[in-house]
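Exam revision sheet. Question 4 asks you to relate a sequence to its structure. Input first:
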Amino acid sequence: MYLPTDGGPRPRILVTMGDPAGIGPEVVLKACAIRKLSERFNVSVVGRRCRFEQWSTLLGIPLGVELIDPLEDATAATAISPGVSTPEAAGEALASIKAAAEMCLSGAADAMVTAPVCKIAMTQCGIDFPGHTEYLAHLTGSSHYVMTFVVGGKRVALVTTHLSLADVPAAITRSRVLEKIKVLERGLRESFEVADPRIAVTGLNPHAGEGGMFGDEEGVAIAPAIADAVATGIRAEGPFPADSIYCGLGGADGPGAGFDAVLAMYHDQGTIAAKLWGFSEGVNVTLGLPIVRTSADHGTAFGLAGRGEADPGSIVAAIALAGQIAEARARARRIESS
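Answer key, structure tokens:
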């Protein structure tokens, strides 16, 4: 677990509830009960008070941190059953996300960490976004952002995210790949304090297209985007075959050795690697937003909800990384103002 010790003020981190019928409240309660985490960071929880009281009683874990209820004055909530999502539960999760984002935008908090939500239930609330990332981009007015997964010193970002595989090839354009390279490079500098980032860019097709034998996206879009990035001074390389570039990333021998991050073309091309690196340690980070946002790298796990067996490792890592990024940005601001 990363616990920064630069002597600055404790970052204020808001942790959202997630879908109250899933494991979100459970892993949040477990994470907040870790003393060295709560002592190092100023952590507050954002969510419906009655839901946390229900989970606290069910699990026997006291809520030992400040709770911010954005629906405190709303009508009484109906009962929910662990593992059974409802539009009301999803609406409460969305309210907690919105409240936390607004506090970060106003400067009242330094970072937000999101517990998992149910995407299907979110759409039933009239929210036309496929996930947290896109919804937060909307709330913050951000058009250039990149979903990035972090496990220790290994990082992989995505050109496309929640998109049907059939629609991916048409979405791999020169301009989009270049945009994601730029956002990733800037994020590595600002959020991870990598002085001169080196980025490996994957191909879309097997063997990175094998010179056009298995597809032309590499030659038409990906390689030209990499060349455009290099022309601006960014150290981007590729396109590399996606089945081997992850080997060696983070320090070991292999094609990925020496790279600070990989930029993958679509969701599973990147997330399979990230989950194999460490499922209970992975963190989802949205680079390119004006606020710091990290998230647990897992879903609502409705089948596990209510059993007390959920592993809080990912949300713990997300809180720690949010603190790291918040402190990195604070250091940068101090340097700029000095």
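Marking note for examiners. The chain has a mean pLDDT of 91.
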